[in-house]
Predict the structure.
Amino acid sequence: MYNGQLVIMKTIKNIHNKTYGSLCALALLCVFCVSCTDTWNEHYDVVEGGMADQPTLLENIQADASLANFYKVITAIGGAETFNSPQQLTVWAPRNLTSAQVDSVIAVYQADVAAGLKWEDNRAITQFLQNHVALYARPVSSLTNDTISMLNKKYMHLLGKTATSGTLDENPFDGAVACSNGILYKTNRIQTFFPNVREYIEQTAGMDSLIAMIKTFDEYELDEGASVPGGVVDGKTVYLDSVTNLSNDLLTGYRAYIQREDSVYWLVAPTNDVWNELYNKYKAYYNYDPTVNNADSLSDIMAKYQIVRGRFLNVSEDNKYNRHPEDSLVNTGYMERQIHNPRSNVYYNPFAADGILNGLEMAECSNGRVYVDNKGVIDPHSTFFGRMDLNASYSNYYEIDKKDNVETMNVVSRRYNVYDSDTTDNVVKAYDFVEVTAKVSGDQTGITYTLPSTLSGAYYNIYVVTTPDPSRTATKLPCWFQVSHSERNNRGTFPSAQSYTNPFPITEESDVDNADVILKQSNNNRCYVASAEKVDTILIQSAVQYTYAGAGLEDGVVKLIIRSFGPSSGTYREKVYTRTLRLNEIIFVPFETEEEAKAAALDKDAFNDELLEANKEN
């Protein structure tokens, strides 16, 4: 099958539901034209007589001296079969193309061939040839007011004998040459190509870094349903006619289909200068230990990921995720479950003086807009550098202590309900938590978490969220616990854990249960107290830095060990504290500087109920 025919047949498959009706309409139109009046003939300006005995589109183009350069282009870029095929087409052929225009289109074609693009994805085909061709024969009258789809799926608006599409500058055409396989019109100039978001950044100077990153993920995938199988060889299906589609895992992963004409996206596209500035800054957050395979390559691609991340804005009217459409935009990484972090993937008042889109140059595209970012307007705190909430109940995060290869802890997922009063059963909030108890009564309890996606060089404030006993009748006791940590070293191993010291040590004035008892214990400066009565968010450490990154790795590089702590006296053990750990979340908040992290740690109300919505049952 010729390339041109392949493109047309693929187009037919995409609109197969409309084909029958269109052909019927065309048949009725032909019957009607036989008996039409002279006025109707004047409107449509179609050559009288049947079309079957006429030359093909290609033959008519070749015979017209004013279309000589158009003929030269289409034969040079492999489009001749498209205009010679039996498929009915309508062609708007630009007359009197200059030699420079011819050379320009052919150069694009050759460059994309050299880059490995298939014929149907070549820009000379999609942006030039298919931009002048529509499926089916389409007579046009002075009364026409219609929008049609071209072979490249762009839309052209016909208003009489004028095409108004793309940038909406007038492009009149004349003639109506009846051909055996369609209708040929002649235009005064090349039909304006209206690029979609991806096409715009591909052809705009100064965005080379962005488009190079995107193209890295271009890949052709076999469309088995559209391909023709020819048997099985060595256990694998061999295709007589294989149809492949260009896909892009990066764009798919971000749910940013900026190459589709039926989608609507805005892209905040960084210039090369912004890209280079952000790359140098972000790469420092992805320093991997020497034992990681291809550490340098991983550092490179992770930094580039984060530059791209958060720049695709979903502006569809049916975007169900955005809870505040009247004053905000969300990027394609936004999910409803992230509502606990108001800054994550949300951009409030984007056109205000301090909004991300204020003052940026904007270009309209066929499926959205491109905003040229020459300032670096995407705050990393709203994307990869944002707060990280780890569900303590998620078993992939934790390891259970073992002795002689036998687990020493009971670890159970439970729920803590908050009622509107002590006398009703009306639940107003529900918090999931993991409950840890020792299998041997009286033993210390403990659990180890391996933290994912940590960054090197960032300054972290670490919080642990605890819940009280969920029973409404039990005597509730506080839980005293300690936290230690271990970071993977340059040999890829974890050294012995080191205890954290409480940044707000317990004193007689501390607002904790049984402070006087705690002060009598040794190592009390490493003690934290989980409330017996409420969901409690406890600062464990401030401005913590890690040498190596865990983001992008299957296994984390930071371990956090939480163990119960308390006096050894049986009286105290039974009456003033519990060794049962009830953990709801571990929260990591990154900062760019030590000063920022320490200042934030002083705000003990930083995590109130409004910011703990992630824990609540939705």
